[in-house]
Amino acid sequence: MKLYRFIVLIFLITSSGVLAHEMRPAYLEIQEITDGQYDVLWKVPAKGMDQRLSLNLRFSDGVETLSEPVSGFVGGAHIQRMQVSKSGGLAGASIYIDGLERTLTDVLCRVEYANGTSLTHRLTPENSSYLIPEEPTIGEVIWTYLVLGVEHILLGIDHLLFVLALLLVVRSWKLLIGTITAFTLAHSITLGLASLGFVSVPGAPVEAIIALSIVFVAAEILRSYQGKPGLTERAPWVVAFSFGLLHGFGFAGALSEIGLPQSAIPMALLSFNIGVELGQLAFVAVLVGGYHLVRRLPLRMPDWSRYVAPYAIGSVAAFWVLERVVAFWP
C-alpha cells in the first residue's frame, strides 16, 4: 500500500475531528504586590463573547478576597481580576479549579513574588488542585513547559496538517530528514525571536497565512500527481523552512497566551520548543509506523483514492483561510 492510501485511511478515521479547534489551556497568574497581598488574573478559554469553559477558581481557607472580581470577555477568553491576601504569604495554601475534571484542558498557574522569583505549575483534569510550595523549583518549570509544547503541537491540527502534507511530497528518507530538520530550525528561530520580544507580528494574519501554507502544499501534491513537480517536490526543505518561519510565529502566539516565568524565561522557552519537537517527531513516527503496518494488509483501493488526501487537506485549510480572514473584521 502506498503512503497516500494510508493517509486516506487516516482521514476516514479522523475526519470528524479535523475541524475541531485547539483546546487552549486556562491561565492563572498570581502576582505579589506587598507582603501577603496579591493581584489575581484568571483567564478561561472562551468561544465568542458570551460562552466560556465552566471553570471556577477557588482558594483554600485562610485566603481572603479583598475586592469583588471584575470580569469580561477579551480576545477569545474570559478574564477575571481580583485581589487576595493571606497572612504570611500563600506558601502552604491550596488552589482549586472546580469543573476542571469534566474538561479536556489544562490550567497553567504562575505565582510571581515581589522579590522577582516565580513558580509555575500545570493543573490537569486528573489533578485539579495545587498546594503552593515554599520555594519554586526549576524542574517544575521545565516539566510544565515541556508538556505544554507537546500538547500544543499534537492539538494544533493546522501545524500537523502542514507536516502531513509535506510527508505526501517527500519521496525518500534523506529528503524526509532534511525537510523535518528545516521546519524545526525555522520555527525554532521565530519562536525564540518572538517570545523574547525581538520581533512582533500580528497573530491573526499569521494564522491565516499558516492555513494558506497548507493550501499551497496541498496544491503542490496535486501538481506532482499530474506529472508536474513543483518546488515542494524538488526542494521540500526550502518550502519547509520558509513556511516554518511562519509556524514559529504561530507557536509564539500560543506561548504568549500562556506567558513565561520572568525568572526562567530561557529554560521555559527551551523546554516548550523541545516539547513541540517531541510532539512533532511522535506524530511523524506514528504515521510512518502505521504506514508500514497497514501496507501489510491485503487492501486494494482505486487509483483515484490518492487524490482524497490532498483535496481533503486543501479543503480544510482553505476553510481555515476564509474563517481567519473574516475574523480580521469585528
TrEMBL record:
The chain crosses the membrane at residues 142-168, 175-198, 204-223, 235-255, 267-292, 304-322. It holds the Pfam family HupE_UreJ_2. It comes from the Bacteria. The keyword Acetylation does not apply. Keywords: Membrane, Transmembrane, Transmembrane helix. This is HupE/UreJ family protein. It comes from Rubritalea tangerina.
